[in-house]
Amino acid sequence: MSDSEDEKIFLFPGEEVKEAEEASSKKKVIIGPGLQGNLKENRVWASRGGELCMKKNTTFWLNSHQKRYVPAKGDTVIGYVTGKSTDTFRVDIGGSEPASLSYLAFEGATKRNRPEVNVGDIVFARLLVASGDVEPELVCLDSTGLKKDRFGTLPIDGFVFECSINLCRKMLDDKFPLTRALAKEYRFEMAVGVNGRIWVRGHNLRQTIGLCHAILGVEHVRKTDLDDYCRNIISELAGF
């Protein structure tokens, strides 16, 4: 059974996703987190409850208020380095088991020129391998093999906080009102991992903490109240 409110579509576990099935009968589609199926047989269903989201009618996924992260190939994540061996680092990404990160999975890294990464460091990385049969594998390069000033160790003067995966996906949307409002008013750095972790660095500690509270506070704000929330939070942060 599905329900629709304000043009939103909500699904229960096991419910068929007719929108994705109709699209897959005409063109190639991609199903993301929260959905499973057999596209060859034109069948797609929800693996958990949540709101159905789609992009250009070719990519479908479910948004839900979950905190348990299930690694998926291609995800960008924030992890804590918990150990190191001869060839790899062990990284906690919030999944059921640690992920591995090779010394050579950094831009410009060679056997002689190893990256300076220590236990306790925070890394922003991409999942290269994610399967129930093997341990997750990370790389600090994008799909083209370049870093592009995105992946790698994050500066220690930033702050990492944990939140729901749903909030992380909202903050990754350039059109999300709070993302646009903060980017317009302040100069700061932010890295968002879809594993429920966000790293923020403002120009000083007070602003960094203020930005973190602003992001955490928006999660349960109604869509109709987002503009008011953004105006109020920008006003409150003016003194930071």
**Average predicted local confidence, pLDDT:** 85
- Biggest sheet overview: 5 strands, mixed
**DSSP strand (E) fraction?**
25-35%
- Evaluate the radius of gyration: 19 Å
Task: Identify the overall geometry.
Answer: flat
N/C terminus separation: 47 Å
> Helix coverage percent of residues?
10-25%
Strand segment tally = 16
CATH superfamily of the largest domain: K Homology domain, type 1
CATH topology of the largest domain: Ribosomal Protein S8, Chain: A, domain 1
Number of helices: 5
What does this structure look like?
The chain contains five helices and 16 strands. The termini are far apart. It is an alpha+beta fold. 20% of the residues lie in helices and 32% in strands. The strands form four sheets. The chain has a five-stranded mixed β-sheet with strand order 1-2-6-7-3, with helices on one face. A five-stranded mixed β-barrel has the order 8-9-10-12-11. It is flat and about 50 Å long. It has three domains: 10-63, OB fold (Dihydrolipoamide Acetyltransferase, E2P), CATH 2.40.50.100; 75-153, Beta Barrel (OB fold (Dihydrolipoamide Acetyltransferase, E2P)), CATH 2.40.50; 159-239, Ribosomal Protein S8, Chain: A, domain 1, CATH 3.30.1370. Residues 1-5 have low confidence and may be disordered. It has helices at residues 18-24, 165-171, 177-185, 205-217, 226-236; strands spanning 3-5, 8-11, 30-31, 35-38, 43-46, 50-55, 59-63, 76-84, 88-92, 99-102, 122-131, 134-139, 152-153, 159-162, 189-193, 197-201.
